[in-house]
Design brief:
- This protein is mainly α.
- About 80% of the residues lie in helices and about 0% in strands.
- The protein has six helices and no strands.
- The termini are far apart.
């Protein structure tokens, strides 16, 4: 199975969204995170994704990517979405 088919299947089955929902509870933010993670996974090497899938480690890796995007203050996703959400929840001026 090729990389794009593997990732598309995981996305279609809701597995990527499921991993992302372990981190964030906001449904819209979770959808954005799942899409961002999917794009990141599509950029990975073909043999790398196939190897993870064959060893049954792909979901763990997807969670790791999602966690890095959601929690790391240097990730593009955090700076674009999470940081903004935290500022507005705290009532600080933007």
């Amino acid at each position: 199975m090729i990389k794009n088919e593997i990732i598309t299947a995981y996305y279609a089955k809701g597995l990527i969204l499921g991993e992302c929902s372990k981190l964030c509870k906001d449904a819209y933010l979770c959808q954005d995170l799942a899409q961002e993670v999917t794009l990141i996974m599509m950029d990975k090497d073909e043999t790398f994704i196939q190897g993870l899938n064959e060893r049954g480690e792909l979901l763990f890796y997807i969670y790791k990517v999602a966690k890095n995007q959601y929690c790391s203050k240097t990730s593009p996703f955090y700076n674009k979405y999470v940081k903004f959400q935290k500022i507005t929840e705290d009532g600080e001026k933007i």
